[in-house]
Hints:
Elements: H1 5-11, H2 14-18, H3 24-29, E1 35-39, H4 44-49, H5 51-60, E2 65-68, E3 71-72, E4 75-76, H6 81-90, E5 94-99, E6 107-108, E7 113-114, H7 116-127, E8 132-135, H8 146-164, E9 169-173, H9 177-180, E10 182-183, E11 186-187, H10 188-194, E12 201-206, H11 217-223, E13 230-233, E14 235-238, E15 245-248, H12 257-267, E16 272-275, H13 285-298
Parallel strand pairs: 1-2, 1-16, 2-5, 5-8, 8-9, 9-12, 12-13, 13-16
Antiparallel strand pairs: 3-4, 6-7, 10-11, 14-15
Helix pairs in contact: 11-12
Amino acid sequence: MQLDRRKFLQQGTLAALATVTLPSWASAAAKKKFITGVQLYSVREDMRKDPLATLKAVAEMGYKNVEHANYVNRKFYGFTATEFKKVLDDLGLKMPSGHTVMGANHWDASKNDFTDAWKYTVEDAAVVGQELVISPSLESGLRKSKEQMLRFMEVFNKSGELCKKSGMRFGYHNHDFEFTQMMGTETMYEVMLNNTDPSMVTQQFDMGNLYGTGADALSIVKKYPGRFVSMHVKDEIKRTNGNGYESTILGKGVQLVKEIVEEGLKNGGTLHLIVEQEAYQGIAPLECIKEDLNVMKKWGFKGQ
């Protein structure tokens, strides 16, 4: 019996389905080799001062893949898509994913279509060779109620359709509010997962951002097999002032990083392991991501 995926979305039963079966694309993904990369936000000040020298240093320490966090006025770190693709090619780097927030200004409800700004975002992502177009947050104005969230999840699905036309996928990257903001009996993250089409919208699971919210990262990956094509590999340590947590070199913190990654590779459909470190405890950011890569290799997560 063929099941209509959209009916499941409308009836809010996708979560139950997800706990017992993998999306079809995830089965194919399990046969592919994962890649390891670094989110360039980890070295944001270095990228701001000298992007070419920073990318060269990243390549020399052994990274083969990077993820951008700077797309402004159709430029990546000041370079057009074509220019940045050449910069990456010359250094032997690839950029399989990137972060650009998809906001209210990217959707024209009167035309039931995306604005040119988002169409350009997708177009330029394809030029530089991305596989994933990732929105790294959701504006507070779009998540004031469950009804509002549901309307924008349809826009998420449409973004997936748009990206698919260029051979890419659309994804979302979590912070912490998705696990603390309740919408009825569900967290915001559950609403998102339960009301987006897995074939159109994937998740970039940031295992560090949710630490301290009470959410269990390992349990979430187990509950939604096949939904996390990308992971931000991030460890957390308690801040010295005692107010919450901040990221640290892999293996030095309290998150179950290795176990979460292993579950993602085994059942989560994970193909992209993206190292990210945002706080450094007095160590130079470039030195931190170099050590992060060494730890990934030691754990057996070198990837392609």
